[in-house]
Amino acid sequence: MKAWQFTNTHEPLVLNEVPEPVAGEGEVVLEIKAAGLCHSDVGLLEDEGWLSLLAKRPITIGHENAGVVAEVGPGVTGFKVGDRVGVCPTADGVGAPGYAFDGGFAPKMAVDARALVPLPDEVDFVNGAAATDAGMTSYHAIITEGGVKEGDTVGVIGLGGLGQLGAVAGILAGADVYVAEINEKVWPLARQLGVKDVRTSIKDFEGVEFDVIVDYAGFGVTTADAIEMVRPGGTVVQVGMGRLEATINTRTLITRSVTLKGSVGGTKEDVAGVYENMASGRMKPQITTISFDEIPAGLEKLEKGEIVGRLVASYE
Predict the structure, then answer these.
(1) Could you give the CA distance from residue 279 to residue 74 in angstroms, rounded to a whole number?
(2) Nearest partner of 161 among 290, 40, 244, 43, judged by Cα
(3) Which of 247, 262, 277 is the last residue of a domain?
(4) Residue 232 burial class via C-beta count within 10 angstroms: exposed 0-12, middle 13-18, buried 19 and up
């Protein structure tokens, strides 16, 4: 079968012929129906700092996956051939597809059954894939790490695939959500979601006292700005990895007792929570779909900021 594989930083993905996977002990083989494209995929292609996370090279990337169980290995219980599932990329003891083992930019993928999350019939595979990382990560950052609750004032930095889902999760929790997004082309989306206001920078919201700010962009200055803008005793949750380092004002961090937390991924329960919101119709992320053959071009568009919402390759 053909798979889009990463070989090295600053090199394009290569379409290689690879063997079809076989389900080992505790594993299933999934027929991939949809796979999400993420800014971390762009980061992997451009930043050597990601290389240490890879189990091998070349490796088939793609860590946001949904599909149908095609084969069940020895020792697997709870799943059968034909089941619709998503793959939690941060399941305990499994590792992430595309990093610890071959991921979903291929027609089939072998994965430990412990990472599987049942996909409700009401949720299609494209949304199912988007939920496994973008949905899970955004939900976990806002609700689990940020502790956002009814009545809170929340800042969301970056309205990409993660930010839009995080904003919706905050709104559903009963918070007043403000969005900072440098790309004015997506401002109409912010207003459609029901946020209170949208500006270029989180520092543009003068007079707004933020209880929690979640930075889904992570371009260095965004982290620093969040620390300056959150209220004394407030919380900044860092999710985005647009840059792998930032310079912050530690005086502000210390004297205002700001809590700065890193948030990575989430849990199977977070994925299930997103699926529940999607199945009920309360969470409807904006998604751009492409074909399997368009994955490299899609990553280029993602890098250039030409994608509104989440980008998902549909194999159906």
Answers:
(1) 32
(2) 40
(3) 262
(4) exposed
- Can you give the C-alpha Rg of the chain in angstroms? 19
pLDDT reading at 161 higher than 80: no
DSSP SS3 for 156: strand
How far is the C-alpha of 223 from the C-alpha of 262, rounded, in Å? Answer: 11
Q: Is residue 18 part of a domain?
A: yes
What Cα–Cα distance (Å) separates residue 55 from each residue in 25, 58, 245?
A: 19, 9, 23
Report yes or no: 6 and 289 within 8 Å, Cβ to Cβ: no
- Are 278 and 284 spatial neighbours (Cβ–Cβ below 8 Å)? yes
User: Which residue's structure tokens are 């949750």?
Assistant: 237
Please measure the distance between the N-terminal and C-terminal CA atoms of the chain and give it in whole angstroms: 16
**Domain range for 167:** 147-262
pTM of the prediction? 0.81
- Please tell me the distance from the alpha carbon of residue 113 to that of residue 91, in angstroms, as a whole number: 10
Reported as a single tens digit per residue, the pLDDT across 251-301 is 999 999 999 999 988 899 989 989 998 998 888 888 999 999 999 999 999
Mean pLDDT rounded to a whole number for the chain: 95
| CATH number where 255 lies | 3.40.50.720
**By the 8 A CB rule, do 171 and 190 touch?**
no
Residue 74 lies in a domain: yes
Regarding whether 93 and 187 lie in a shared domain, the answer is no
110: domain CATH number is: 3.90.180.10
User: What one-letter code names the amino acid at 210?
Assistant: F
